[in-house]
Design goal:
Elements (H helix, E strand, L loop, with lengths): L7 E6 L6 H15 L3 E6 L8 H6 L4 E3 L9 H16 L3 E4 L5 H10 L4 E6 L8 H14 L5 E4 L2 H11 L6 E3 L6 H11 L7 E6 L8 H13 L4 E6 L5 H10 L6 E5 L4 H6 L3 E4 L9 H8 L4 E4 L2 H6 L7 E3 L4 H13 L1 H18 L2 H11 L4
Parallel strand pairs: 1-2, 1-4, 2-3, 4-5, 5-6, 6-7, 8-9, 8-11, 9-10, 11-12, 12-13
């Protein structure tokens, strides 16, 4: 008999890519284990598997299911695979990190007798893509009878779910994504050294269409032309890497903008930066990287979209600039570089907010309670 027969949790992930949601899930699993919960991770794809070693070292079992690469057969295959996994693991609850797929995940889970289900919602509904919005709305409605709650990463996302997916507010909850604020702060502080002449700006995000690194790259070109000594570090990997490489070359920024790729030493990199820029789009859900930068005490420039307004308290904790406005972003960065002492004071206020509102321990506890595991 299991030591914790009623505290088994199955978590569904797309993959073990070393960014975003999988990293967050790894941190959550570590906390859940300390609470007497036994998590098992089920991935929908075998690659990327960057975090496989870390899940193994943490004692978190990972199972990968094999779905057809394309076509509608993927959906019944997912339901069948989840059914089989639930019969094997016997979880008390299933948490789906991918939204949309959760409808078929929970079909298999309910058939296997799972008592509690919840889906994580990490992005605002894609209202700028009518076809995508219609598809997501259909899938969310399809999964509605099988889903106990949609857990939204921000109040901004929750409003989008209610307004655009037609889900009653009572079937949703808001639990902020969390980070290990103390660990990020400690690691960033340990990496700080003597500041160079150049003002180092960083952004941590996937190189994908739902982020907006091009606005930051073009802002860097404007700053360079104006004589500002800046250096931009873009941390992350993704399908737009070649596109960004061409843009950097076209703007002659090879000595200014660095593509650092996927990194597992983000707190140390934050400690070596002078400021953090979060160039986002309206479908941004919250921004864990933004919170990590706040935890590291960095001054912030961010796009004026719903998630950033919520995290930065309507601009009280960082400068908000209009979406896609290269000039406004360049001006905001220039202001920080011109008065570093004032910039540092703003970073300290953000650090207090990160400590009070975005704890990974608080997130883990609230999720566990919502899934009836505590």
């Amino acid at each position: 008999m299991s030591r914790f027969p009623d505290k088994r949790l199955l978590i569904v992930l797309s993959s073990l890519c070393a960014e975003g949601t999988p990293v967050l899930t790894l941190d959550l699993c570590r906390r859940w284990k300390s609470q007497g919960i036994a998590p098992t991770v089920m991935t929908l794809a075998a690659t990327p598997d960057d975090l496989a070693g870390e899940f193994q070292a943490a004692g978190i079992p990972v199972e990968t299911i094999r779905l057809p690469s394309a076509g509608n057969l993927r959906f019944p295959a997912l339901a069948a695979a989840t059914f089989g996994m639930c019969r094997k693991v016997r979880p008390h609850a299933v948490l789906s990190m991918p939204l949309g797929w959760h409808a078929f995940t929970f079909l298999g889970a309910r058939a296997a007798g799972v008592r509690h289900t919840a889906a994580h919602v990490g992005n605002y509904p894609p209202v700028h893509l009518p076809a995508g919005l219609a598809k997501f709305r259909f899938l969310v409605q399809l999964g509605r009878p099988l889903t106990d709650v949609l857990i939204c990463c921000s109040a901004y996302v929750q409003k989008g779910v209610v307004d655009h997916f037609g889900i009653p507010a009572r079937k949703t909850d808001v639990i902020y994504n969390g980070v290990d604020v103390q660990a990020v702060r400690r690691r960033a502080d340990a990496a700080r050294g003597t500041r160079g002449e150049r003002f180092v700006i960083g952004m941590v995000a996937r190189l994908e269409v739902h982020k907006d690194q091009p606005t930051l790259i073009r802002a860097a070109a404007r700053l360079k032309q104006a004589g500002d000594l800046v250096e931009v570090w873009l941390v992350g990997e993704g399908s737009r890497r070649d596109e960004f490489t061409r843009l950097i070359a076209e703007l002659e920024l090879q000595d200014t903008v660095k593509l650092l790729g996927m990194r597992r030493d983000v707190p140390e990199l934050l400690g070596q930066m002078d400021a953090f820029v979060f160039s986002a789009k309206p479908d941004e859900g919250l921004g864990v990287a933004l919170i990590e930068a706040m935890a590291a005490g960095l001054p912030i420039v961010a796009t004026d979209v719903g998630a950033c307004r919520e995290v930065l308290l309507d601009g009280a904790l960082g400068k908000l600039v209009p979406e896609g406005d290269v000039g406004a972003m360049a001006d905001a960065i220039h202001a920080l570089a011109s008065d570093r002492s004032q910039a540092a004071a703003g970073g300290a206020r953000g650090q207090d907010r990160a400590l009070s509102a975005f704890s990974i321990d608080e997130m883990a506890t609230r999720y566990a309670r919502r899934l009836d595991l505590l």
